[in-house]
Amino acid sequence: MTNETTYREKGRSLFLAAMLVLSVVAASAAFAGGAAAAINEETYDEGPTFDSPAEADVNDQIWVGQEFTVETENNVQLRQGLDSTNEDAEVVDEAQSEDGEVSFDTSDLEADTFYHLNDLSNSNAEGNAVFNLVSEDLNVEFDGTAAEDGTVPVDFASDRNYQTVNVTSEEFDGEDLHEIFSDNGNYTALHTSEDAVHDDDDVLTIEQLGEGDGALEANFDSVDVDAGDEVEFDFSNTDSIASDNATVEITDDSQEAEIIDIDTIEEGDIGNITIDVANTDEVAVSVGDNAEGHVANLTLGDYDTDNDEVVLEYNTYNAGGVGDSPSFGEDYDSSGVDTAAADVGFNAYNASITGYNVSTELSEGEALPNANWDVEVGSTADDTTSAVDYGAADFLDESNDRATFVIEQRSAPGDTVIQTAPSDTTVDNFGDFEDATVTETDTIATTDADTGDHLFVTVEDFGANGSIESLNEAGGLDEAFFDQTGLALNISEQDAGAVGDANYWNTSYNAKEDSDAGQMLNVESLIDTDEYDTNEELAGDLIFKVNYEGNGFDVNDKSYDINFSIDADNSNILSEDYSTESEFTFEEADLEWDDVSEMPANAESNATGTTNLAPGTEITTEADSPNEEGGFLESDDPEVAADGTFEASFDLSAEQVGSMFDLNAEGPLSTDDTVEDIELVESTDESDEEGLGVDSSADDITVGDTAEFDVTVENYEGEDTSANVTLEVGDEQVMESVDIDADSSAEFTMSVEDLPAGDHDYTITVENGDFEATDDGTLTVNEEGSSDDEGSSDDEGSSDDEGSSDDEGSSDDEGSSDDGDDGEGDGDGAPGFGVAVALVALVSAAMLALRRQN
Predict the structure, then answer these.
(1) Tens digits of residue pLDDT in 435-455
(2) Contact 284, 396 (CB under 8 A)
(3) Cα-flanking dihedrals φ and ψ of residue 825, to 5°?
(4) pLDDT digits 0-9 by tens, 612-655
(5) pTM, whole model, 2 decimals?
(6) CA 67, CA 36: separation in Å to the nearest integer?
(7) Which helix (H) or strand (E) holds 137?
(8) Do 439 and 520 touch, CB atoms closer than 8 A?
(9) Which of 422, 514, 517, 698 has the CA that lies 20 to 30 A from 787?
(10) Using CA atoms, how far apart are residues 471 and 480, in angstroms rounded to an integer?
(11) Do 162 and 210 contact (CB within 8 A), yes or no?
(12) Contacts of 230 by beta carbon, 8 Å cutoff, 6+ apart
């Protein structure tokens, strides 16, 4: 028996092998297209079912991800679009009826789009169903934290009123999840793998969960969690792709409040008491002691905090009450704006003051004195509702934590500083003061008693921010403020007239002795406590704006003393007398140019001047040359510097040297000055070049000549340097190194040989590690001449081409050179036939291999 295989059999084997490979590829592609499993197979719920392809209408919604079923014996197409009569509508899916049903999975379809069903056996296209495929939103959140054995509501927001959801967590299996969510909830039933709904041990299915706040309650009492854990849960609709996850933080199950921070302050200041309210619904706070003559009892609730921390703010300046302050109140919304509790010094942040009582021996307007005051937090009895309960010695039914609120004796304020700002700047509040150019000074520029630059008196390190806040809430500086603090600001003439006493102005004049020479000083406070405490530079300063305009001041070069004092006997913030003095002078506003007779024709030609206008004031300046001279007009608007100078800069670089022009300056408060007949002289500008520079040139050459490039490298720096120079011409590259002295240049030549005829672009780059410069150009290489081109033995008459006895008469040599077409076409023909030839070659090689094998 022979074992030979015929070529026909071998060819058939190769063909069948190729078909087998192609079949595998095709099968892979087919499986890839149909791999998406129906979503209800994984999430244990089915989507809607229609009795026939014509049952749904345009108002029906199907949620993205739902698998819907149509009861029919016929094959059905799913087409995109609203018009069911459109025969050209895109077919996105087609299903064959099995057991009287067809199903479509919408997971990969486009959301918020209309689709219609096409019953392939129904010629009435208008009877086919149309529906809207809608994306679905799901949002799940835990409403707060949960104690280790506590509960927390779960908010469930959905586009549907009721739906069935699956819940999973990496921390818990299905039975644990059942324990967590089985207490309370707006649902029909809970299912785990022990029910017949599904067999997944890690999934809890909540049937018909109603949407809304507190739709579920999570109870962690019977599962293993520890304080500090953050447990994540995944919620997914069982019949669509809508899902969300939510995380809850597990906290210590203690119900005890804790004081985590308490300020140490000076008398009259505001102090914060920060409390961790843990898992409490309400916390009781007691400040002071009846034995010390002052105690305040409060309850805080209605927390609005992400970290269980609330802040009780105590303005100790108001400890004695403001006006007819009540001593008891309850159910006040005190999230920073509770007027009733604020009248006795208290505000709460991230919480509300739900009740309070103050028992004190302090007088109205008296600040809480320096002492170590007890602070205690805990809980009250359940029936603590009345003023008697809040004022009782046993107000705290249970104490959780204690601390000391230290109020130190107020230190004396710092210096009194006189300041000014430009007259054309509006300064009505602290924000304006921050934004303005404010400068310490001893002179105030004016034009008359009603017009001039601003005058401020700042008491540095005044502190007592509690009094400042009360001052602002009361609407500004008033007589009561000065009387309670014992503070006074007095401005008096240094030189009295020949007859009578020196005039003076005082903030509390009405409370002083009457005098024909005294007047009430009109001042405003520029403190906003919300911004005041955030400005590190100005925090603690007491800023007065003195409205001297129209207040009877003599501003004709008159000097005044300013005295700021605190009378300890009449002060609720300072126990020792305090006084500080400074002085200032009103001056007539003035400005003038410095001496100048010529200016250079520079791009920045500068002229300077001096003025007593407030620093920051804008001066309008011009360099004006009439037409018969230079015929130019340049302007600049410099500001007055802190030293009272201003500098105007004009671009005169393009103007004619020798031209004459005037300098004009004009400022506010009727100030101006002119300098005439200034001569424009030669520019003094120096080169603004820096680093390195390079310049090059190259003459045209003829083929065969050496190309030479003349290069100049500039060093604009004040130090000697070495630089690398690179010449690039086509594929040619030449490199050299050159030394250049400071502020000097170096010249040299670079060359390249054997350049062919034509135009050659070149680039020269010079660099020294710190700077780099480039220059480029074009070099032309010309042909030698026309006679040389035609007479070349290489081009015609070559004995190798025609005269060889071996080649003479050969059709191969002569025929291939007639037109040159064959040579040109060889490369171009490959793309057209390369693939086919390659396949033939592959099959041939395979056949040859089989032949050799046998």
Answers:
(1) 999 999 999 999 998 899 999
(2) yes
(3) -85, -15
(4) 999 999 999 999 999 998 899 999 999 999 999 999 999 999 99
(5) 0.52
(6) 12
(7) none
(8) no
(9) 698
(10) 9
(11) yes
(12) 247, 248, 249, 250
